[in-house]
Design brief:
about 375 residues; mainly beta; 2 domains; 4-stranded antiparallel sheet; disordered N terminus
C-alpha cells in the first residue's frame, strides 16, 4: 500500500466565518511510541502579511480506519513563531518584508492494530490568491494527511519529519540547491519524486459564499472528509514535472543528494515532493511535502552594477542593454515564461549589448545578464 503523507502549508482560522487565503506550506508525520501509542505532529506555515485568519485554535484532525471514522482530535498549536523565509544570497535586500509564521501542532493517540491501517487528515481552505500555478487558489483548499500502514504498525515505524525550508525566497536566474536526506534516524532509505499536493475543503461558509463551513466543501471540514483525496489542478502550462518556470527543469543531483533548479520568473508558486520510505526493500510509508517559492527579480548587493547602472531599451526591432560599467565575458539569454531559452548571445569588452527581437512572438519574456565581473541580473521584457 502506498501511504500518502502530505506536507502542506495551510492557513488556519480562529473563527468559523474567516476564510483563510494565505496557505503556503506545511507537513505532518507520526512517531511510534510503543504499545500502540503514536505522536502526531503537524507543522504549518502562513504568510505574515495580508490580515487573514490566524492559526486554528484548535485544529480538528480526523482519524479513519478503513472507511470508518475512528476518532476526532482537536488540539491547539503548541507553538506559533514568526520566521523570515530564507532568502538566497543574491537578493537578500528584496525580502526584508517576506515573513511567514510557523505553527506546530502535536498530540498523542492510542491506535490498536488494524490491517487496513489508519489515515489521519486535516483539511482547510484556501490557498493564497497570489499563487499563479494552480487554478482558482482562492476557492481551493488543501488536505494534509498521513497514513499508518499495517507494516508501519508492526514495525513501530517513525516517519521522518522533513520540515526544512518549505517556504523560501528565490531570485530568477539564480541556482537553488535544496538538500534532501537519504535516510532517516532509523536507517530507512528515502526515495524522492515530484508530485502534486492534495486539495480539500472549499469556500463555503463565508458571507460572500454562504453554506455549511464544516462540510467537505466548507472552509474547515469537521471532521476532515475521508480518503481518497484529489490532487490540485495546475494552471495551463504547469504540471507535476514542470510546476514553475525554470531554465532546465527541476533535477536531482546524486553527488550531494539535492534538488536543483534555476527559476526564471517573478511570482509565487507551489510544488510538492513525494518521499517513499523503504526498509529492507519494503515500502513502509510515503508522503508528500508541499513547497512555496517566492520569486523576485533583483541583483546582488555584491554586484558592481547598481539598479540604475543597467539601462534596458526595448526598441522596435532590438533589445538594447547598456551600462556605464564595461560588460566582461557576458552571456545574455532571453527566456519565455516557461523557462525555455529563446535566444543567447555572448558579449565582451563592451558597454552596449544588442539582441534582435526578430521572429520572436509577442509576450512577456525575461532577459538574463550574467558576466565575469558581476552576478546575474534578470530583467522583464515585453515584446509586442
Amino acid at each position: 500500500m502506498k501511504i500518502k503523507f502530505q506536507f502542506l502549508l495551510f492557513f488556519c482560522l480562529a473563527v468559523q466565518q474567516l476564510n483563510a487565503k494565505h496557505i503556503i506550506s506545511g507537513t505532518m508525520a507520526y512517531t511510534c511510541l510503543g504499545d500502540n501509542e503514536y505522536e502526531i505532529e503537524m507543522i504549518l506555515y502562513r504568510d505574515c502579511g495580508g490580515g487573514g485568519a490566524p492559526f486554528d485554535m484548535p485544529a480538528s484532525f480526523a482519524i479513519y480506519t478503513e472507511d470508518e471514522l475512528a476518532n476526532i482530535i482537536e488540539v491547539a498549536p503548541v507553538s506559533v513563531d514568526s520566521v523570515i523565509a530564507a532568502p538566497f544570497e543574491d537578493c537578500p535586500e528584496h525580502f526584508e518584508g517576506y515573513c511567514v509564521q510557523k505553527g506546530r501542532y502535536r498530540f498523542n493517540v492510542s491506535l490498536i492494530y488494524k490491517p487496513m491501517g489508519y489515515t489521519i487528515s486535516y483539511q482547510r481552505c484556501c490557498w493564497s490568491g497570489s499563487i499563479v500555478n494552480i487554478l482558482d487558489p482562492l476557492d481551493t483548499g488543501i488536505t494534509i494527511t498521513t497514513e499508518i500502514t499495517a507494516l508501519g504498525q508492526t514495525l513501530c515505524n517513525t516517519q521522518p519529519l522533513y520540515e526544512d525550508q518549505m517556504a523560501f525566497a528565490s531570485c530568477p536566474g539564480t541556482e537553488i540547491e535544496m538538500p534532501i536526506p537519504q535516510s532517516d534516524e532509523e536507517g530507512d532509505s528515502l526515495v524522492f519524486e515530484l508530485c502534486m499536493p492534495f486539495e480539500g475543503a472549499g469556500p463555503l461558509g463565508i458571507p460572500e459564499q454562504p453554506g455549511d463551513p464544516f462540510a467537505c466543501t466548507g472552509i474547515t471540514p469537521t471532521p476532515a472528509c475521508p480518503p481518497p483525496y484529489e490532487e490540485v489542478l495546475y494552471a495551463a502550462g504547469y504540471d507535476d514535472s514542470n510546476p514553475f518556470p525554470t531554465v532546465d527543469g527541476i533535477t536531482f543531483n546524486p553527488d550531494n543528494n539535492s534538488l536543483m533548479f534555476v527559476p526564471t520568473t517573478v511570482g509565487r508558486y507551489i510544488f510538492s515532493l513525494c518521499m517513499t520510505e523503504y526498509r529492507d526493500g519494503e515500502v513502509i510509508s510515503s508522503y508528500r511535502t508541499n513547497y512555496h517559492v517566492q520569486g523576485d527579480a533583483s541583483i546582488s548587493t555584491d554586484n558592481p552594477f547598481l539598479e540604475n547602472d543597467i539601462e534596458l531599451l526595448n526598441q522596435a526591432s532590438d533589445i538594447l542593454v547598456s551600462s556605464s560599467t564595461t560588460f566582461e565575458d557576458t552571456s545574455v539569454q532571453l527566456f519565455d515564461y516557461t523557462g525555455r531559452v529563446i535566444r543567447t548571445q555572448q558579449f565582451d569588452h563592451t558597454n552596449v549589448m544588442t539582441m534582435s527581437k526578430r521572429n520572436i512572438p509577442s509576450g512577456i519574456y525575461f532577459l538574463s545578464i550574467a558576466g565575469a565581473n558581476h552576478k546575474r541580473v534578470v530583467k522583464k521584457v515585453f515584446i509586442d
